[in-house]
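Practice record 12: protein with zinc ion.
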Amino acid sequence: MSLSELPVPLSFRVIRAGSTETIVLTCPKCGRVGRLTRNGYNSHGPKFRVEHDEDYCSLTFFDGPVYDEVRKIYDSVRVKR
Ligand SMILES: [Zn+2]
């Protein structure tokens, strides 16, 4: 698999409840649906988690193009209020 190709198209939706916004997306790592959250930073920028029912997948800069996509999604939702 080429790193320039995404394994799955990233589909996501935003659930708004009051002032809380939850990003739900298809996890680019395992293909299951999960909740996107930020989990701190490393020297390359924010780290993310896709939280599933019993576990989660981590997404960092080192995951390549899928990380960029997830970061774009996160930023697009978090920036506009
Ligand atoms: Zn996952």
